[in-house]
Amino acid sequence: MLRRLLTLMAALCTAAGLAVLIPATSAGAAPACVTAWNSSSVYTGGMTASYNGHNWYAKWWTQNERPGSADVWRDEGSCGGGGTDPSPSPSGFVVSEAQFNQMFPSRNSFYTYSGLTAALGAYPGFANTGGDTVKKQEAAAFLANVSHETGGLVHIVEQNTANYPHYCDTSRPYGCPAGQAAYYGRGPIQLSWNFNYKAAGDALGIDLLNNPYRVEREAAVAWKTGLWYWNTQNGPGTMTGHNAMVNGAGFGQTIRSINGALECDGKNPAQVQSRVSKYQQFTQILGVPTGANLYC
């Protein structure tokens, strides 16, 4: 309204031979991003959601139709300042909290974003090696595998309790001081076996051999064990998940390092596809290509 009045005044003054200066319109910042799109939510016509640095307007009823992939959504333009995420992580992590929540809309409250960012210091090269695209690809790869292992960050501990007594290798000199059935799968990559708790604890400076329960009780400890495996363990593969992503071997090699003996080389293609689909979704959220060699 003010702009219109100034323009009208300018026209009148010009007609009278007077000069009027109208302040230039400043280039306004992009609007704030509204609440992030949630695949499990129902949106009706007129509702809005943010996705991948843009605000979107629902033209009619929709559920699980990703903004940008269906005509039901109208792109309202970039938000949060030039299409960047409105809430970048103060830790410098390439995945913002809003993007993390978008990736895991039904996650267990135990798996906090702050717990994840607090764990990053244990492995500073994680999602922080190479260019921006590689950093985001590695973060997406790790989180995609984590999502598969935990049902979308829902499960903190292994669900099949019948397996619990099997994870104690009594031949190890240190044995199983926490008990025969204490070393079941826990955390984002389901750490299991007494020797893995010993190795992870030694690497992280945490006594997990005597107290493996910390992995299911402290979010940062849980995330650290996942990062320990990702950054240091080849598993049944020939390289760590970290090396697979930063050296260009591809997402398929991360699957091989985590569960290749049971899934790769045609053993369980449905499980492999589940991991790949999640990786494709997460790279799209982060705005980077997937890269080659997705399968194992």
Protein architecture, described:
It is built from ten helices and five strands, in the order αβββββααααααααα. The protein is mainly alpha-helical and 296 residues long. It folds into three domains: 2-78, Carbohydrate-binding module superfamily 5/12 (Seminal Fluid Protein  PDC-109 (Domain B)); 97-155 and 232-286, Lysozyme, CATH 1.10.530; 161-217, 2-Layer Sandwich (Endochitinase, domain 2), CATH 3.30.20.10. The strands form two sheets. A three-stranded antiparallel beta sheet has the order 2-3-5, with no helix packed on it. It has a two-stranded antiparallel ribbon with strand order 1-4. The chain is elongated and about 65 Å long. The relative contact order is 0.10.
| Order of SSEs | HEEEEEHHHHHHHHH
Strand order of the largest sheet: 2-3-5
At CATH level 2, the architecture of the largest domain is: Orthogonal Bundle
Tally of structural domains: 3
Structural class: mainly alpha
State mean pLDDT (0 to 100 scale): 85
Tell me the total number of β-strands: 5
Q: What proportion of the residues is helical, as a percent range?
A: 25-40%
- What would the CATH topology of the largest domain be? Lysozyme
Query: Which descriptor suits the 3D outline?
Result: elongated
List the uncertain runs.
1-28, 81-88
CATH class of the largest domain: Mainly Alpha
What proportion strand? 5-15%
